[in-house]
């Protein structure tokens, strides 16, 4: 079956977060489309099929004028501004079906079970796991509501996104045994030894086995999932071909590494907006041309290894005093999930470590680390990527990590194709030596970006510090070679490749045939 088969069928995407947020600004209704490649990629798929997107309506609860009492709003709600590429948003519309979840349910389902049980377990973090019976009940209830809303849309195909929705597939399956159900899991799947700490381990697996196919970024995560099924779901059989026989059906598992739109990131990096933002940063923080820039871009989440990175920088300066004044560390931070105490503590800890670093090593004319928290758009972010001499991604665990791929793409193509202006080739016009990437071996992106990126174990403070030093001292030729290899790998596994693979799975093609 091909993509065309998908176009003829009714597709329902179900995700926790909505693709558009409606709000009032100065009394006027506004629509905000989150930036970033993933939402617009998914948006395009739903729009192609004229389908329905079911999501929790997390925007302004008072906003209503275009929204029917059941939370539905016909898309497109308002014209979206043409971007710098000159692309108008003329995609066909689809139905955005918003779920209005009561506050208590959101607290326990989203901030509770999803982000204090499942998120830490999937990232192999035991300490933040908080088991409260109200969390699991709310997760069941919210998943039921998402499932009911999906069923109401009379779907042929349902595409669930991520870890907030592990039970919904089973609930939809009960109502619609004939529908094709597919899920993509954006975070790692842990080993069976670790997953076992989850009190609802078997229930979650049975929920996910309501799907016909479950996708992960890496084969390693898919293998962990099958291992968990074999161990914790006694009535399921995992075949040698990697399929799962369950409840008279075959459930496929597959690995599809998600990627970015590399050309778009490179164009953003070469844009005036990127340059202007960088100039503002340079002026505001008095960054000196002769100093290297080391960059970190993260949601302030304990899985991102920001504290480990700051420890490594501190160790680097302690053991290499001659590096004092040679670089500035720029941390772009985005606050996240702050209703959860572990996240509030993490924010405080990151800020305190940066202050410690500056107190311990700063001088009158050198601030070793700066912290930027303001909202910036994708072009401004690309300006940071483009001007960094070294980027550090040091997650303790990360399903994929798009920041690493975006940084690689923002360096542009080192050798423009003959006859084309550099900009046309996605390369910044200025001939600039590309930045080097220091990358944790515990992120999905390391599988494709290393060894071109310098691989580190973020728990090994000495090894981590040496690798940052190596990146700072890397010569121009080596930087170009590594950047070229990274860009090639970003292109080989870009967002289009991921989407094409998802569409094949959604359409029901390329089935793994169970041989039992
Ligand atoms: C989950 C998985 C997986 C960040 N700061 C700013 C900003 N960003 C954008 C980046 C990037 C995105 O946010 C972050 O994506 P990551 O992949 O790095 O991390 P998660 O948010 O944890 O995503 C992850 C992903 O899902 C997809 O499957 O890769 O492993 O954890 O796109 O550019 N964007 C702007 N300003 C910022 O300050 N505009």
Topology:
Blueprint (H helix, E strand, L loop, with lengths): L2 H5 L3 E5 L5 E5 L2 E5 L4 H13 L2 E5 L15 E3 L20 E5 L3 H20 L10 H20 L4 E5 L6 H8 L4 E5 L7 H4 L5 H8 L4 E4 L2 H14 L4 E2 L5 E3 L2 E7 L6 H8 L2 H14 L6 E8 L6 H14 L7 E8 L6 H21 L7 E4 L5 H10 L2 E4 L8 H9 L25 E5 L5 H4 L4 E3 L4 H13 L2 H17 L2 H13 L9
Parallel strand pairs: 1-4, 1-7, 4-6, 7-8, 8-9, 9-12, 13-14, 13-16, 14-15, 16-17, 17-18
Antiparallel strand pairs: 2-3, 5-6, 10-11, 11-12
Helix pairs in contact: 2-18, 3-4, 4-5, 9-13, 9-14, 10-13, 11-12, 11-16, 13-14, 14-17
The protein binds GDP-alpha-D-glucose.
In short:
The protein is of the alpha/beta class.
Structure explained in plain terms:
Helix content is 42%, strand content 17%. The protein is an alpha/beta fold. The strands form 3 sheets. A 10-stranded mixed beta sheet has the order 5-6-4-1-7-8-9-12-11-10, sandwiched between helices. The protein has a 6-stranded parallel beta sheet with strand order 15-14-13-16-17-18, with helices on both faces. The two termini are 23 Å apart. GDP-alpha-D-glucose binds at residues 35-36, 38, 186-187, 258, 297, 299, 332, 334, 376-378, 381, 398-403, 406. Residues 58-95 are annotated as: Disordered.
């Amino acid at each position: 079956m091909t993509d065309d088969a998908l176009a003829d069928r009714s597709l329902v995407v179900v995700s926790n977060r909505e693709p558009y947020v409606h709000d009032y600004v100065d009394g006027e209704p506004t629509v905000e489309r989150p930036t970033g490649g993933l939402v617009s990629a998914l948006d395009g798929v739903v729009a192609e099929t004229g389908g329905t997107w079911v999501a929790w309506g997390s925007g302004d609860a008072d906003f209503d004028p275009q929204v029917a009492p059941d939370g539905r709003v016909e898309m497109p709600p308002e014209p979206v501004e043409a971007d710098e590429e000159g692309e108008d948003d003329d995609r066909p519309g689809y139905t955005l079906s918003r779920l209005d979840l009561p506050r208590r349910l959101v607290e326990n389902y989203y901030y509770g079970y999803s982000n204090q049980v499942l998120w830490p377990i999937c990232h192999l973090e035991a300490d933040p796991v908080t088991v409260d019976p109200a969390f699991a009940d709310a997760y069941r209830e919210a998943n039921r509501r998402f499932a009911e809303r999906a069923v109401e849309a009379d779907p042929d195909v349902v595409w669930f996104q991520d870890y907030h929705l592990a039970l919904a597939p089973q609930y939809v399956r009960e109502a619609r045994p004939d529908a094709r159900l597919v899920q993509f899991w954006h975070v790692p799947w842990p080993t069976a030894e670790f997953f076992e700490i989850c009190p609802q381990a078997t229930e979650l697996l049975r929920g996910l086995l309501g799907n016909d196919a479950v996708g992960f970024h890496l084969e390693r995560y898919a293998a962990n999932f099958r291992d968990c099924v074999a161990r914790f779901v006694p009535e399921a059989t995992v075949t040698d071909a990697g399929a799962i026989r369950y409840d008279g059906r075959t459930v496929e598992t597959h690995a599809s590494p998600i990627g970015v739109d590399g050309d778009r990131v490179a164009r953003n990096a070469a844009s005036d907006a990127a340059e202007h933002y960088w100039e503002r940063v340079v002026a505001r923080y008095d960054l000196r041309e002769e100093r290297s820039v080391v960059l970190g871009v993260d949601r302030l989440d304990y899985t991102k290894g920001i504290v480990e990175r700051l420890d490594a920088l501190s160790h680097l300066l302690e053991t290499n005093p001659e590096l004092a004044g040679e670089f500035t560390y720029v941390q772009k931070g985005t606050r996240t999930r702050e209703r959860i105490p572990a996240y509030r503590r993490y924010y405080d800890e990151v800020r305190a470590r940066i202050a410690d670093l500056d107190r311990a090593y700063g001088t009158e004319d050198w601030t070793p680390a700066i912290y930027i928290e303001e909202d910036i758009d994708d072009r401004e972010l690309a300006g940071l990527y483009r001007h960094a001499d070294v980027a550090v991604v040091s997650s303790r665990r990360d399903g994929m990590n798009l920041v690493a791929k975006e940084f690689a793409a923002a360096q542009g193509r080192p050798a423009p194709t003959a006859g084309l202006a550099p900009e046309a080739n996605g390369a910044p016009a200025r001939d600039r030596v590309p930045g080097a990437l220091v990358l944790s071996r515990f992120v999905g992106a390391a599988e494709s970006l290393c060894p071109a990126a310098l691989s580190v174990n973020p728990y090994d403070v000495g090894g981590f510090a040496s690798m940052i030093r190596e990146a700072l001292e890397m010569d121009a030729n080596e930087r170009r070679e590594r950047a070229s290899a990274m860009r090639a790998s970003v292109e080989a596994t870009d967002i289009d490749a991921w989407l094409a693979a998802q569409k094949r799975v959604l359409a029901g093609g390329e089935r793994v045939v169970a041989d039992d």
